[in-house]
Amino acid sequence: DPSWDEATPPVYPRAGAGRIALAAARLIAVLATTLTLLAAFLIVKGAERAFPGLKRLRNAIASIWGRLAARFLGMRVVSVGAPIPQGGAIVANHSSWTDILVLLAATRVTFVSKAEVRNWPGIGFLAKVADTLFIERRRSHAKKQEQEMKARIEAGQHLLFFPEATSTDGLRVIPFKSTLFSVFYTPELKDSVWVQPVSVVYRARPGGGRPVDFYGWWGDMDFGSHIWVLLTRSFGGTATVVFHPAVRAADFPHRKALASYCDAAVRQGLEDRVGPAPAPITAR
Description:
Layout: H1 17-47, H2 55-72, E1 75-80, E2 88-92, H3 99-106, E3 110-114, H4 123-129, E4 133-135, H5 142-154, E5 158-161, E6 194-203, H6 223-233, E7 237-243, E8 247-248, H7 255-274
Parallel strand pairs: 1-7, 2-5, 2-6, 3-4, 3-5
Antiparallel strand pairs: 6-7, 6-8
């Protein structure tokens, strides 16, 4: 339904003193955890040249941060299936900014982002610290970027892509854009890259009175307002990360066939847990 993203976001009553106090405590916990683990992350990263085996510890620190941050936002992360042991690409549905925390908690991932993010205040610094792969849209950079992707995959990294190109209400999968999959058919990657579809499924606590799209972040929803809702009203939620079987790009004749396969797998993983996509709720 092309109008789902125009659905009116839920409107909640003003938070009382108890919820405000809880939100403040949660926010302090998130910031303290972030600063502590960021310091540890940087120390380990700086020592990796002398002790390459420390990379596993760095991945563990990132995973712990994602899991704790999700907990402070009222969510428990559950994994179903297993991530590919070798390097490759992960393609997932995109429901919210919280996908970053949830996927970090579930597996080691390397984010792939547009180059502009590198210069964003705060977020750009964290992205660079996390070794995000920044993509330039200029054709002159294409070859170099393909070689870097290949090097990272051969080093065992999981490059994370969101083929929907936008976030949703968490109840549907927007058809995957096959353009993204063209990178897997370059001479540098076609014969070696494995692609793993992943479904990220959010469920609010049963009986808690939260709408089914409680964790979704779509349309013109404001980031600050959304994080405030989670800090004050998210309790007992679950984020399930479903790892589907990985496939080789070389086993599909073209990017559209690979995109269609991944789309179907991710869509089925979501529908198995929340049902078919509902019609949008246009008013609350």
